[in-house]
Amino acid sequence: MKTKLIIFIFLLIAVFPISAKSKEYPRAEIKVGYTYNGTFVRGSDGIIKREIPFVLLANKEQSKFYSLDTEFKDSLRSTPQGRAIERQMTTSVAKKYLETKDLNVINAVVYPTFLYIFRSLLDNELTVFDYAGSFEYGYYTEPLGEIQWEIGDSTKTVLGYECSIATANYHGRHWTAWFTTEIPLQEGPWKLTGLPGLILEASESTGQHSFIATGLEASNQEMYPIYPYRQYEKMSRIEMLRQLRNYRDHNNSINSAELGINLGKDHIKNKEEAKIDFLETDYH
């Protein structure tokens, strides 16, 4: 399976050598890998833990936080040639799943996340693109500098860099971050920025969500915009989160109505499942 995926990646490179380089885009100065550790409720399966790799590309003026896997899949779906490759991948994965009944094999075609975050210090804003429930996707902008950090005295080493502690309340959660002034970029994973150095580790107080850097390097990589595959509706952050919450809680009912198929009753959360929430909780 892994060999087939590598072959498809080479096919992708062969298909898109010009389209991906149609113009010059801003270039990063640093590339940081992060692992997002998240908790969510998956219907009758209950509480699920997952790990999603993300990448941060950043320079002194702008950054891009995204999933390589998501961008790869979006690039495929953005052209007829890519969609043909994706169909081959899907057929191969479906065959493998029927043989093994192993849900892990579908990771090659299933999206791990839909999140992209672009930051611009020149415009003093960040732009978030994400899933909004059902077959809908949205985007919104926010001003930078909303997080009011309190820097403490504690230190620890992350990836060989001496880091200082900082805490903040942000959109309903209390965050603890570890940042290093050895890399003086005011960047970090997700929306966590604004400290006098790169954030290498961050976690919120309930233990449901955390980010940890897995590696970093100097980079001259271009920060491409989103591939023109799907339509994003401009929404407010609160509206987008509320819409997604409604879909997560009533997805069987919503999908049944849209598809005209009875998919059964919606899962009723127990007390522990009801405590699980998004990265931001102030939409309630």
Structural account:
The protein has 284 residues and is α+β, with helices and mostly antiparallel strands. It contains six helices and twelve strands. It has helices at 2-15, 68-77, 80-100, 237-249, 251-259, 271-274; strands at residues 30-41, 47-58, 62-66, 116-120, 125-133, 136-143, 150-158, 161-170, 173-180, 198-204, 209-218, 233-234. The protein has a twelve-stranded mixed β-sheet. It is globular. It starts with a helix and ends in a 10-residue tail after the last helix. Residues 1-21 have low confidence and may be disordered. This is GLPGLI family protein.
Strand order of the largest sheet: 7-8-9-10-11-1-2-3-4-5-6-12
What does the radius of gyration come to? 20 Å
Unreliable stretches (pLDDT < 50, length at least 5) are 1-21
What structural category do the secondary elements indicate?
alpha+beta
Tell me the fraction of residues in β-strands, as a range: 25-35%
Number of strands: 12
Mean pLDDT: 88
So how many helices? Answer: 6
* H/E element order: HEEEHHEEEEEEEEEHHH
User: Which outline best applies?
Assistant: globular
Helix content: 25-40%
Terminal residue distance: 43 Å
Largest sheet: 12 strands, mixed
What are the salient characteristics of this protein?
disordered N terminus, 6 helices, 284 residues, GLPGLI family protein, globular
Topology:
Blueprint: H1 2-15, E1 30-41, E2 47-58, E3 62-66, H2 68-77, H3 80-100, E4 116-120, E5 125-133, E6 136-143, E7 150-158, E8 161-170, E9 173-180, E10 198-204, E11 209-218, E12 233-234, H4 237-249, H5 251-259, H6 271-274
Parallel strand pairs: 6-12
Antiparallel strand pairs: 1-2, 1-11, 2-3, 3-4, 4-5, 5-6, 7-8, 8-9, 9-10, 10-11
